[in-house]
Amino acid sequence: MRSQIYKTLGLSLFAMVMLILVVLFPRDLDISVVGYGIHAEYHFSWEKYANNIKTFLHGIFYEQTLGPTRYEGETAEAAVARTVMNSMAVIVTAFVLSMGLGILKGIFDYQSSDRKTKWLGGMTTWLFQSIPDFLLILIYQWIILNYFPFVHIFAEEGWEAWVFPTLLLSIYPTFYIARITSASISAQEGLLYIKVAQAKGLSRTRIMYKHVLKNCMSTILSHLSSLFVYMLSNLLIIEYFSNFPGAANRLFIAIDYDLYFGAGANYEPSVIIGICFCFMVLLVIAQLVSIISKYKSGLR
């Protein structure tokens, strides 16, 4: 287990260093007007590259700042802290919601596998996992705009700004956890501790929630890293299409991608690095929990 932890920390540190080097890559273009068109040329300079790295490191270690942003009077660390906190509220709530509902859905899927309600169990789980999240977002917006026009789905403040991104982010994780929970419970069938509990006259519900589910938690938590990777990758789409002022949306703004010239004039490397570092820390924590859970459950 220790070797896996050290490997995770080492790879994460290496990935963060490589990300910093890529983000600080010079992106200055020589733009000129040629005839009736605009001509852009790029010339790489090691001197500019070294100066970008030196300026960034000097700001961190000597000035204790990540640097400025495109907005006057705002520092990069202030922008990162504000947007990351907004996103964390959505991520944590969506995770708790998906864990609770997902486990309950997984229990229902397992119990209905040999009943007439089977189509409400595993089939619905499979269906919602197969629908692209982008399509779900469009369907959700279409329903709200056409049938509930009084709801502000693009609000930046208030309960609408927080509730709807949370619900959207929790859809796939709920059914992902449901599938894992159902499979984990099935793997417990016929084990000795279940037979002993049944011989003692314990009810099926008590055996499920007090014994079986407890033994399945390590297996469920072992998938935490892949779950968080999906949630973070999907967060950008959800925040962008719902106009939520979170870190993923701010990251997209900081990249300032231009269709014709690549990075725009308002490219913010310090904001990109700060947000990516926070997301990296979150992924490392999830990975460590996953490794420990695999060790406890006997998975290798």
In short:
The protein is mainly alpha-helical and 300 residues long. The protein has helices spanning 2-23, 46-61, 76-111, 122-130, 133-147, 159-187, 192-199, 204-221, 224-242, 247-255, 269-297, and strands at 29-34, 37-42, 257-258, 262-263. The strands form two sheets. It has a two-stranded antiparallel ribbon with strand order 1-2. Strands 3-4 form a two-stranded antiparallel ribbon.
Q: Descriptors for this entry?
A:
4 strands; mainly alpha; 11 helices
Description:
The strands form 2 sheets. This protein has a two-stranded antiparallel ribbon with strand order 1-2. It is globular and about 85 Å long. The protein is built from 11 helices and 4 strands. With 300 residues, it is mainly alpha-helical. Helices cover 70% and strands 5% of the residues. The mean pLDDT is 82.
Q: pLDDT under 50 segments (min length 5)? A: none
Class inferred from helices and paired strands:
mainly alpha
Kindly state the percentage of residues in helix. Answer: over 70%
What does the largest sheet look like? 2 strands, antiparallel
Termini separation: 9 Å
Could you tell me the radius of gyration in angstroms? 24 Å
Strand content: 5-15%
Name the strands of the widest sheet in spatial order.
Answer: 1-2
Number of helices: 11
Average pLDDT, rounded to a whole number, is: 82
Q: What is the total tally of β strands?
A: 4
Outline type = globular
- The helix/strand order is HEEHHHHHHHHHEEH
